[in-house]
């Protein structure tokens, strides 16, 4: 049985603990700054808890000693502190961050590390890259790669057409920070919340717009190999207009603490959600212009006698699958590992990755 440190006892961190301990293969030390957040895990078999200041190196480094791996589910602004502590502890490091700057530091930390560093192991970035790379490998020459992901309420009932299902800090960050993309063969940054589009799936209309961090390392991997590459977040129509008014007209992009307080006290959470994964790749195959599309929907479901939201299942399931593959020797045990390095078939065959194997819609089109 391997000991794993899970940092962050929020919605995703608690689900990671449930999955890992429930598998029978791992014991966990769950670390959080809030003793209240840890209280529900007190006395649980194969779960140790530690209330620590995560950004204090002396405290966090000691707690990680002897751990096989660190699974970082803390807010994005703590990514670098946890990654550095994992390196000092000689533990493998995995995280969920969508923050581009933090991921660059993690990559630098991996350069001379004795263990594996695998950032961006969630849904987007994370699984979306694994699915996209599986399609990309089918083409002789790439034209356009479009990645779209949404975590949505199944029954929207407010003007935002949205419920809180993910970290509020993370949502605000991806709505505000610049987005990486490849446009007409050039690597560039594009503004968040722009380039809105609409599309329909199963009779439902959605909108999608630029958000930060969803591509992970794909921009740099495909630089010089693709005409256009972009990532957009999926929402129901009307969401983007209201968010842009809050960010720009009310200047809340510069008062993120105020925006967070408004959202968390006005927009209810829900467990009745759906995650949509939509990837389209076009290019040349054997002399013909072709297109392939991967579409997947994951719904909330019961796991271990408790209902978990779709975003909990997909995010926690993804990072647990990557950890499991690392523990089984299916991934390199040292250095920086990209999501592109993880085979889709192996991921879906994993006991945690299997949650993505449900409700797949085989929409691989014949031609563009």
Explain what the structure shows.
By secondary structure, the protein is an alpha/beta fold. Helix content is 32%, strand content 29%. The protein is built from 12 helices and 18 strands. The strands form 4 sheets. It has a 7-stranded parallel β-sheet, with helices on both faces. The protein has a 7-stranded mixed β-sheet with strand order 10-11-12-7-13-14-18, with helices on one face. Helix 4 (79-88) links the parallel strand 4 and strand 5 (92-95). Residues 359-368 have low confidence and may be disordered.
Please report the distance between the alpha carbons of the first and last residues. Answer: 49 Å
SSE string, helices as H and strands as E: EHEHEHEHEHEHEHEEEEHEHHEEEEHEHE
Query: What's the tally of helices?
Result: 12
Low-confidence stretches: 359-368
Order of strands across the biggest sheet?
3-2-1-4-5-6-17
**Mind telling me the C-alpha Rg?**
20 Å
**How much strand content do the residues show?**
25-35%
Helix content: 25-40%
Give me some keywords for this one.
single chain, 368 residues, alpha/beta, 7-stranded parallel sheet, 7-stranded mixed sheet, 12 helices, 18 strands, 32% helix, 29% strand, globular, disordered C terminus
Q: What's the arrangement of secondary structure elements?
A:
Layout: E1 2-7, H1 11-23, E2 26-32, H2 35-38, E3 47-51, H3 57-64, E4 69-72, H4 79-88, E5 92-95, H5 100-110, E6 116-118, H6 127-136, E7 141-153, H7 168-176, E8 179-183, E9 186-190, E10 197-201, E11 204-210, H8 218-222, E12 228-235, H9 239-249, H10 256-266, E13 273-285, E14 288-299, E15 301-303, E16 306-308, H11 310-327, E17 335-336, H12 344-349, E18 360-361
Parallel strand pairs: 1-2, 1-4, 2-3, 4-5, 5-6, 6-17, 7-12
Antiparallel strand pairs: 7-13, 8-9, 10-11, 11-12, 13-14, 14-18, 15-16
Helix pairs in contact: 1-11, 3-4, 4-5
